[in-house]
Amino acid sequence: MTSTTESTTSHPKVLIIGGGAGGIAAAVNLKHRMNIHDFVMLEKTDALGGTWRNQVYPGCACDIPAPFYSFSFELYPHWSRDYPPQQELCTYMDFVADKYDIRKHIQFGVEVQELRWLNDDQVWEYTYRKLDITPGKKKLQWDPKQSVIAEGLKGRANVVLNFSGPFNWPYTPDYPGQERFSGKFIHTAYFDHSIDLTDKKVAIVGSGPTAIQIAPEIVHKTKHLTMYQRTPNWIAQLDNDPYPRELREKFVRDPSAVKARRQMLMDQTEKMWGAIGIAGSRSALRFQQRCIDYMQSVVKNKDLWPHLTPDYPIGCKRIMWDCNFLALNNRSDFDMVFGPIQRVTERGMVHKDKVTGEEVEREYDVIIWATGWGSFSFGRTFPTYGATGQELYEYWKMKGTPIGFMGAMVSNYPNLMVAAGPYGNVWTSFIELIEERVDFACRWIQLMCTNNIQSFAPSEEAEARWERRCREGVKPTPYAGKCVSYYKFSWDSGFGASGKQEEQNGFLNVGFFPGLPIELRMAVEEFKVEDFVLSYRKNGLFELPPPPPAASPLRLNRMYPSANIKRTSVTWQATSHL
């Protein structure tokens, strides 16, 4: 592999890690906005698409409307509905990669193992290995059993965009006796379609977004389907009929119609956080009541209602959209278990009845782990050593919490940006968030060229100020509620050690920004150079690449919420003095 510093050009050499939506957006912008053509993207599987390429369980679909869950520079007229299946998202990302000709910059089957900042040379050195991705080989991004072709390889880059994403390690419970089970286990993160569920007694462990998508898809095959629920979820009604033919045809012939739908969906997202952003507010309680009313209108058995009603504020965990899940509770071949699982046996699982306290064993042929992910990795999917020589995880432990600046960078880790750092996620389309990060990166690369900058990193003071604001701003929001959520961080969650989030003393959300999406966007767009520690080049200047040709297909089309949409929140504005 050619190192990203081995080039005759003198602009900053950029490494992109990850071939999901973040990597694709970064590659398109570097090539067609910055006119940089010698960047490298490393993707450890054999295809683009990230999580959407790898998750293939029955019923897998987007729960953010696709016209908003797409790149602003490539508004897409071919969605079948607002919430399309996984295959359509993969098709879209492949289409973008081909249209903007970025595949030539991608090296598949390459996994980064370590990042290390070299103070003497002021560059990042990355260590990587090559994996066997020939057809038939295991190649899921989180598969620990991949065949290694070569390892210990090294390269260098001036700027690293670690866009490996927030979900990197599927969580699998470790109940006593799992090794004794005589049936089959399946994890939804790497669903094995070769296992026939027809006329089988099947258990789904988990009741989150994945579980409620898969259950309606497989219940017609199974002899009996049981779902084990630890915590109820707020479930809202979903209208997801296919677009009428006339509307699909209009989207194809009239790009402004696609743009208008995207604008409407963006506005709805901003308004939704405005409604639930203060836990216990009248608008939040109204939203909760609508969810309760909907659930009770669908589920006929009133004895189930208390078990399906959360006791935490809406928004503490991901709000779920009902894809025909609640109606399963009216079927004779489906039921739910609400007591905690005690152990796995040779024949099935034992749980403690929530009412009687007695242990009950149920027999199964297949157990499906729909248990999601460990907490956010915040871009730390491999050891990362910064300017002080300290590994990022140890730096956070020293600080007592994951900490960063604007959700994009960490002090003492120069020229390194992530897609979803601490307090860096918002109540919006993740792709909209990604585009904010890519824009931030492109503006810094331009500053490096125009101001002779070798390295940049947020100052510890700026980072601490941002963390104080976020920590205080979270307190009145639903994110601070008493719930177990992937929004929250677990110290057990490392690369390969996906600890599930647990409530503990002093436990705080560090995943989500405590304000409106537009507030985080404006903060990132209006960053101040004085909040960063800079070093300058001693041997020659970085050159600013010439503007891209007029024929470039890239047309930036970023949108803002409509003028009538509220753009400030109490939770964020109240912390402005910190």
TrEMBL record:
SUPFAM superfamilies annotated for this entry?
Answer: FAD/NAD(P)-binding domain
Pfam families per the record? FMO-like
Q: Which GO terms describe its molecular function?
A: flavin adenine dinucleotide binding; N,N-dimethylaniline monooxygenase activity; NADP binding
* Gene3D superfamilies in UniProt: FAD/NAD(P)-binding domain
Q: Which InterPro entries match?
A: FAD-bind_Monooxygenase_sf, FAD/NAD-bd_sf, Flavin_mOase-like
Q: Give the keywords, sorted.
A: FAD, Flavoprotein, Oxidoreductase
Say which domain of life the source belongs to: Eukaryota
The family assignment reads: Belongs to the FAD-binding monooxygenase family.
- Specify the protein name: FAD/NAD(P)-binding domain-containing protein
Species name for this entry? Gonapodya prolifera (strain JEL478)
